Amino acid sequence: MQREIKGETKGRRIALLDELRGFAVFCMVFYHGFYTMAYLLNLPLGEALLRFFMPAEPWFAGLFILIAGISSDLSHSNLVRGAKLFGVALLVTLATAVAAPQELIVFGILHFLSICMIAFGLLQLLRRRAGRERPPFRLWPVALCAVLAAVLWNVPQGFVQIPFLLRAELPRAWYTLWLAPLGLPGQGFSSADYFPLIPWCFVFAAGTVIGRLARAGRFPAWMYPSRVPFFSFLGRHALLIYVVHQPVIYGAGLLLNALLR
């Protein structure tokens, strides 16, 4: 029976991944809407909603990144995908620099994902040229990524820690503007959307390992059919929605701010 399930599911689109990605984008849209209400319109309701949802933001962003890692293991063109996404990310930086310099995005989630895709694409290329087979799924790399992400979570804030056990401050000399993408932002660095390689690369890496299960058709059969078409649609068009929603929300906020004056 297990062989039949694998044969039926291998190569099929995993609808649950689309739906989870769509749910993450849905949450991001609302989060940025609350951010605009709080900091552009100075609305108390926006500030309250932003404070309420702020603890959840790393979780739905992490879900989005994890699924991006899974999808990358299913792709044969990560170098191309990463290069195209990096171009989009640069356009986002340029657009925010011109239209809203106070909300400049220097190294946001699109910059981060593009670098991860390119790096993973290079690893895939090296593995193919070396004639090495794709390694099978193992649980321990996922666990290792989770541990590293937890220990290094606060590197951008200047320290590492083993939660509830140990905390160690990092030398401030390590932190410069040029190392901000790595996770070592120097004094004066600012980015309205900031997803440095440390610690988020470990979330992406865990996704690439889980992706080996998807490629082998070893995900449970119930994950393949779509159950929430709305979120599935959002997930299939996640990049377009993510790029478009921010200027739409910001423009609507500016218009509303002008009308309220």
Strand content: under 5%
Could you tell me how far the N terminus lies from the C terminus, measured between alpha carbons in angstroms? 67 Å
Derived from helix and strand composition plus strand pairing, the structural class reads mainly alpha
Q: What spatial order of strands do you see in the largest sheet? A: 1-2
- Unreliable spans are 1-7
Order of helices and strands: HHHHHHHEEHHH
Total count of domains: 1
Rg (CA only): 20 Å
Biggest pleated sheet: 2 strands, antiparallel
Number of helical elements: 10
**Helix-residue proportion:** 55-70%
Q: Give the rounded overall mean pLDDT.
A: 89
Shape: globular
Q: What's the total count of β strands?
A: 2
What features would you describe in this structure?
- This protein has 261 residues and is mainly alpha-helical.
- It has one domain.
- Helices cover 64% and strands 3% of the residues.
- It has a two-stranded antiparallel sheet.
- Strand 1 and strand 2 form a beta hairpin.
- The termini are far apart.
Keywords:
single chain, disordered N terminus, 3% strand, mainly alpha, two-stranded antiparallel sheet, 64% helix, 2 strands
